[in-house]
Amino acid sequence: MKKINITNSVDGIPIYIKRQENQSTRVRYAKARSAKPNHINGGFSLDLIDRDSPQSPLYNPTYAQFDRLKKALRRSTSRASHLSKRAGFTSNNASFNANISAGLGEYLMLIKIGTPPVKVVGVVDTGSDLTWAQCKPCVNCYKQATPLLVPSDSSTYRALSCQSKGCKALDENQLPCDSSNKCHYQLGYGDLSRTTGNLAVDTFWFGSTPVKNVFFGCGHDNEGSFEEAASGIIGLGGGPVSIIKQLDSAIKGKFSYCLIPYSDNNTNQTSKIHFGTHANIAGPNVVSTPLIKKDPSTFYYLTLESMLVGKHNVSTQFPLSPKEGNIIIDSGTTVTYVPDEFYHDLINAITKVIGNGIVERPSGFDYCYKNLNLDRVPSVTFRFTGADVVVPPENMFLEIEKGVSCLTLFSSEDALAIFGNLSQRNMLVGYDLVNRKVSFKPTDCTKHA
């Protein structure tokens, strides 16, 4: 195998990617592979599995699509509350203050950890940093469909000390050190779910791409509302312990994804996530907006300057407060929450075109229409600094019940505004943490490899 050194290190141990060039090695791990990432100058790609699609281990075939969408809305509400509180915002909306459930992300990624590699199905979360998975021995472990990690079975596993850089980067999630001098972490959720364990390093396999010395949480005490099909969380936030930051020298701070439309979730297609050079976005119709540095560093903050319905500005109450970094982009939140300052102006502009909602609203939704003709629905443009991002009608309204379509935009009131994944469908969305920008390109994600 050829080794490619990377300048990042954990406790003085260099992290490096190994390209698989040895045929015997390829045969040895052939059965363990779940994906074949595309190697393009160091970049690689993986499937991003919608949790409600038939490819997902969380898929329940007894649920109708309407049921899945309603459940996604409830998760979205809880997640929005979680992100808002972490960012120091509050909300007067009682429904927005729902208990924060564990494993709130909407997409899954299949990776492997250890030598030999063990399959891990993680909930992908751009709103958290630490990647963790259940490990034996367990004081408490929730039921899990796939085998738990056994640290002693991996020749590349090593627990980190309390003095390690990785441990110090945990910040408030680091537990007091004990006589073992092992770094202990704890993450808690509003519904009293929690994960506690050791911070460790091991080899991570992204498809067939192995990356040595990635640090993660090896959870020995995990209980609450975690779902048995998921092994843990894969943190893709902007903080120091996230996978993105750890691979920074290899992927140059770049990742992107292309989310297929919600209506295609019942097909065999999956969304894609790309890392490194494979995440480059080029060509016509690419628009970019600056990433704003704010606390917590986990979140990806953008600046929303105004919104359009069709070609008409919907509000005159700009600039918002705060002027910069007033909205985050988050793939784990389903719906979009827009600032309350112009939410009602936005609704008025939409209803002027298509009329007022004429049906009894399904639980959780504000504006619904019976037998809505999407040809009558205007597009909505999010005018980020330097980038006009057009959200088409099919992303604005979804059929919640038979013949009843509801608006997927909600008021954030006093809470943090969020650009959710329904608004990002059929777009190639690229993050460049080195040049501090997010780019958007309209794309048919069902044809994007």
TrEMBL record:
Entry keyword annotation includes Protease: yes
CDD domains: pepsin_A_like_plant
Predominant location category: secreted
Pfam families assigned: TAXi_C (PF14541), TAXi_N (PF14543)
Family classification: Belongs to the peptidase A1 family.
GO terms, molecular function: aspartic-type endopeptidase activity
PROSITE patterns: ASP_PROTEASE, PEPTIDASE_A1
InterPro entries according to UniProt: Aspartic_peptidase_AS (IPR001969), Pepsin-like_plant (IPR034161), PEPTIDASE_A1 (IPR033121), Peptidase_aspartic_dom_sf (IPR021109), Plant_Aspart_Prot_A1 (IPR051708), TAXi_C (IPR032799), TAXi_N (IPR032861)
Cellular component annotations (GO), alphabetically ordered: extracellular region
Subcellular location: Secreted
Any one GO biological process: proteolysis
Keyword line: Aspartyl protease, Glycoprotein, Hydrolase, Protease, Secreted, Signal
Protein name per the record: Eukaryotic aspartyl protease family protein
Phosphoprotein among keywords: no
Domain Peptidase A1 residue range list: 107-441
